[in-house]
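Re: the request from the purification team.
They wanted to know what the chain is likely to look like in 3D before they choose a buffer screen. I agreed to run a prediction and write the result into the notebook, where they can find it.
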Amino acid sequence: MSIAAQHLTAPGYTVRALTAPTERLAAPVASTRLRITARGRKVLAALVALPVVAVLASIALFGGGSAVATGAAGSADFDYLTVQAGQSLWSIAETLAPQADPRDVIAEIRSLNQLSTSSVQPGQRIAIPADIAE
C-alpha cells in the first residue's frame, strides 16, 4: 500500500480500486403465450360464475315472492270521528275502547290516519278502526 493510501484510510478498512460501472445489455424477452390448464379453466369458470350465483341466490331469497292480484275487493272498515275542543287521542282511545290499553288504540289510530305525532286539532276528522268503535 502506498503512503497516500495509508493516509486516506482508517485502521481496519481496506482500499478498493474504483471502477467505472459496466453497462449490461438486457437480454431480449421472448414473448410467450399464456397457457391455461384444464384445472385452471375450471377455477376461472368458478370465479366468473360465483358472483352470478350469489346475485341469483339473493334474488331468490329476498325478492322472489310475488303479489297476485285477485278480483276480490279488500275490506277497510272504519268510521270517522271529528275531534272536539279539549279532546286528545288519549281521551278518544279511552272513550272508544275502555277495556283496551289506550296506547295500543292510539297506535292503531295514528297508523290508520298516518299521523306523525299524537296531537290532534279541534275540527280534525280522523278515521277510527271499526273493530275499536264497536
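For the purification team: The radius of gyration is 43 Å.
Please add any questions underneath this entry.
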